[in-house]
């Protein structure tokens, strides 16, 4: 039986409306709102006549289209597609990304190595009397690294003498990459969530945001960095996505986690999220959204820190106190270097190229696209004002951190996703401005009886596609420049050192140096790898080829503070050496006392003009070289030229023959000088970019066949001691 006909005929109803009515989703739609919605779907943005603009929608009112199950399914598809693209990019970062910051190595990877393997290096920030670093953050990642280490110890039998060298190397570094894999998946999920939320608000902006997040060099570097600011960036990304969905409770919770469990200064990126919540929910409800997660996160942080430090500790307060209220001695973050106000602009230009320009233009373009005069009249203007919430954290972070004297690249990690959302919002706003201009031009031409102009919308769409392709090209070029120019240090420790088991047996057939038992150590046959001015490029102890290796520091040109080994027998994380200080003052006990005796291997960088004079032939006919073993009080090298054992024995006999007396003008050689007469040979070497002698453009971006001709490369080397006394 047929139902009575509706006031407007079925044939006159547009097809989308008929389908929605059959599904029971859209029962009644006001005629003008329906017409505006359909025009937006068709892309027509100009009013057909004066009556279309009479309902006030041109004044900025927002047309609320009912949420349908189809919209929800579309959002889910967008998330899945974005996650797939982002996961591929993040997995590439997990496998190829370098350790770019020495703080990442010594403040996070080394304590994690101690929690995982029982030995590692401790900085002053992890000393209990300072307690600046949160063990809640480290402990969460230890839950991933420790099972991975247990698996490779038992299933792969790492450090066993019968294991192949390549297998042993992979097993040693497996916990490192297990953590990176976790960071990659977490970053991909958060970025896909933000992308789908932006795409629901503005599809074109979501597409450009996805391209920036997936292909920019900055996100490649930060997404798998083991740093609190990177973790805070993931939390802020989730908070922005929830803000676009008007889920302010979850947004506030993520912001609190970013500040307490991540990095306290991430709070500046959370300000726009809080202000949007206050505007929509009110002050008291916003406070309620913040207080509950704040109590939980702070309680967990204090409990975990107190357990590991052995005394009541709140690392968040300690970090704020040190950086914001330094003592009268002149301490604080400025001890570790200051940079000009343009530091972040230059760095962001390298990592995001034109994306930085778009993000800076997002606010003015959004205001223009959201205005009554230049914006579209289909109710989409308010979307540009809503998208400002996503890129406001980037602007706030850039302004605050640029005003500080101490600057580091990792500080801006917290706002990288916001920058990408800003570039997408800028492209979306520019596209809407062009569409609105084209629509008004068509209406004016129709009224005047002229042929309507065309091509403006197509030009804007082409520009959006070109921006995405340029992001991919510039990002790939920058990442390639980093990997080819600065990738040698990680390979030097992972591949250049011979694999040795705990019992001193050599797994790697190329090993030629002897082993030595260190008294007072829990591990016999410890192999000391010494590093001088290249200490800041050490990737972490996870890259050392076996459990018996330890890193030591030479007394080189750097006079600042260096880490010391955790002392498990004296409490481990609850004990801090007296030689750790917060004044960046180097201590003699942080360096090796007798480099020639204590060092089994030396890793160093040799500049191009220092390469050839260093080489010579030793007694066995192999290419030998003298590494830099530090300085004496007069600044000279602590070893003489490479000598054979026969020469050393001859000097001992000459000194022993003078028993009747000692000539004051020609005293015998000191025993310590004789004992430092050793021979070294090069075990491994690879080219390393000499940034000071290479042009800025060719070293910043890699172009095949062009960069290699213009850049200058030194040599990164691993030296092995041929004989030790």
Write the topology of this structure.
Layout: H1 15-22, H2 31-42, H3 69-96, H4 102-117, E1 121-122, H5 135-156, H6 165-201, H7 203-215, H8 217-222, H9 228-244, H10 248-262, H11 267-281, H12 283-309, H13 315-324, H14 343-352, H15 354-369, H16 381-403, H17 416-448, H18 456-486, H19 488-495, E2 527-531, E3 549-553, E4 564-565, H20 595-598, E5 601-606, H21 611-614, E6 616-617, E7 623-624, H22 645-656, H23 671-675, E8 680-689, H24 696-700, H25 707-710, E9 713-721
Parallel strand pairs: 2-3, 2-5
Antiparallel strand pairs: 1-4, 5-9, 6-7, 8-9
Helix pairs in contact: 3-6, 3-7, 4-5, 5-6, 6-7, 6-9, 7-17, 7-18, 9-10, 9-11, 9-16, 10-11, 10-12, 11-12, 11-16, 14-15, 15-16, 15-17, 16-17, 17-18
Ends: how far apart? 105 Å
Q: What does the radius of gyration come to?
A: 32 Å
Query: Helix count, per DSSP?
Result: 25
Strand order of the largest sheet: 3-2-5-9-8
Beta-strand residue fraction:
5-15%
Count the E strands. Answer: 9
Mean pLDDT: 80
Residues in helix, %: 40-55%
Biggest sheet statistics = 5 strands, mixed
Determine the structural class based on helices, strands and strand pairing.
mainly alpha
The low-confidence parts are 1-14, 16-68, 509-523, 613-624, 633-650, 655-676
Shape assignment: globular
């Amino acid at each position: 039986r047929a139902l009575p006909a509706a006031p407007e005929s079925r044939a006159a109803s547009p097809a989308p409306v008929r389908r929605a009515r059959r599904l029971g989703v859209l029962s009644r739609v006001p005629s003008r709102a329906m017409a505006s919605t359909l025009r937006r779907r068709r892309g027509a943005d100009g009013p057909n006549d004066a009556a279309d603009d009479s309902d006030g929608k041109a004044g900025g009112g927002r047309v609320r289209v009912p949420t349908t199950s189809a919209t929800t399914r579309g959002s889910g598809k967008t998330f899945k597609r974005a996650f797939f693209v982002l996961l591929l990019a993040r997995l590439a970062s997990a496998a190829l990304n370098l350790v770019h910051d020495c703080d990442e190595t010594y403040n996070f990877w080394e304590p994690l190595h101690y929690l995982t393997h029982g030995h590692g290096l401790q900085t002053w920030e992890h000393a209990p009397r300072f307690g600046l670093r949160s063990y809640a953050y480290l402990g969460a990642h230890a839950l991933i690294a420790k099972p991975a280490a247990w698996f490779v110890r038992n299933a792969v039998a790492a450090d066993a003498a019968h294991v192949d060298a390549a297998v042993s190397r992979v097993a040693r570094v497996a916990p490192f990459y297990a953590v990176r894999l976790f960071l990659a998946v977490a970053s991909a999920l958060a970025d896909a969530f933000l992308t789908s939320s932006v795409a629901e608000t503005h599809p074109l902006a979501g597409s450009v945001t996805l391209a920036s997040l997936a292909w920019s060099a900055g996100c490649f570097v930060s997404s798998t960095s083991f740093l609190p600011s990177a973790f805070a960036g993931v939390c802020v990304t989730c908070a922005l996505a929830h803000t676009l969905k008007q889920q302010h409770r979850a947004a506030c919770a993520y912001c609190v986690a970013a500040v307490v469990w991540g990095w306290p200064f991430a709070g500046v990126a959370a300000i726009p999220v809080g202000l949007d919540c206050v505007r929509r929910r009110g002050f008291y409800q916003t406070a309620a959204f913040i207080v509950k997660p704040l109590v939980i996160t702070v309680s967990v942080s204090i409990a975990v820190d107190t357990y590991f430090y052995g005394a009541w500790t709140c690392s968040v307060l300690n970090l704020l106190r040190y950086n914001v209220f330094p003592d009268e001695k002149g301490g604080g973050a400025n001890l570790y270097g200051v940079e000009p106000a343009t530091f972040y602009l230059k760095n962001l230009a390298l990592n995001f190229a034109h994306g930085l320009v778009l993000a800076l233009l997002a606010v003015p373009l959004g205001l223009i696209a959201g205005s009554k005069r230049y914006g579209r009249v289909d109710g989409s203007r308010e979307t540009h004002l809503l998208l400002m919430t996503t890129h406001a954290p980037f602007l706030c972070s850039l302004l605050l951190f640029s005003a500080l004297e101490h600057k580091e690249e990792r500080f801006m990690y917290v706002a990288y996703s916001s920058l990408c959302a800003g570039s997408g919002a800028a492209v979306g706003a520019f596209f809407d401005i062009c569409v609105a201009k084209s629509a008004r031009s068509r209406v004016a031409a129709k009224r005047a009886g002229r042929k309507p102009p065309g091509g403006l919308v197509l030009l804007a769409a082409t520009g959006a596609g070109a921006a995405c392709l340029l992001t991919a090209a510039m990002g790939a070029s920058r990442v390639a420049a980093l990997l080819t120019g600065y990738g040698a240090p990680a390979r030097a420790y992972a591949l250049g050192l011979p694999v040795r088991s705990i019992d001193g047996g050599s797994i790697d057939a190329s090993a030629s140096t002897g082993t030595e038992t260190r008294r007072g150590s829990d591990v016999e046959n410890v192999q000391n790898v010494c590093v001088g001015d290249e200490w800041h490029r050490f990737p972490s102890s996870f890259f050392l080829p076996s459990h018996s290796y330890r890193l030591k520091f030479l007394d080189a040109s750097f006079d600042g503070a260096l880490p010391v080994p955790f002392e498990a027998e004296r409490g481990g994380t609850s004990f801090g050496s007296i030689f750790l200080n917060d004044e960046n003052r180097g201590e003699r006990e942080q360096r090796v006392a007798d480099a020639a005796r204590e060092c089994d291997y030396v890793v160093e960088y040799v500049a191009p003009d220092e390469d050839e004079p260093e080489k010579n032939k030793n007694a066995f006919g192999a290419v030998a070289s003298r590494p830099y073993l530090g300085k004496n009080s007069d600044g000279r090298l602590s070893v003489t030229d490479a000598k054979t054992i026969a020469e050393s024995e001859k000097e001992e006999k000459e000194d022993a023959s003078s028993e009747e007396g000692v000539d004051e003008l020609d005293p015998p050689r000191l025993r310590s000088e004789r004992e430092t007469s050793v021979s070294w040979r090069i075990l491994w070497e690879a080219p390393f970019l000499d940034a000071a002698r290479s042009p800025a453009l060719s070293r910043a971006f890699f172009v095949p066949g062009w960069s290699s001709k213009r850049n200058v490369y030194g040599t990164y080397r691993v030296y092995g001691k041929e004989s030790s006394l």
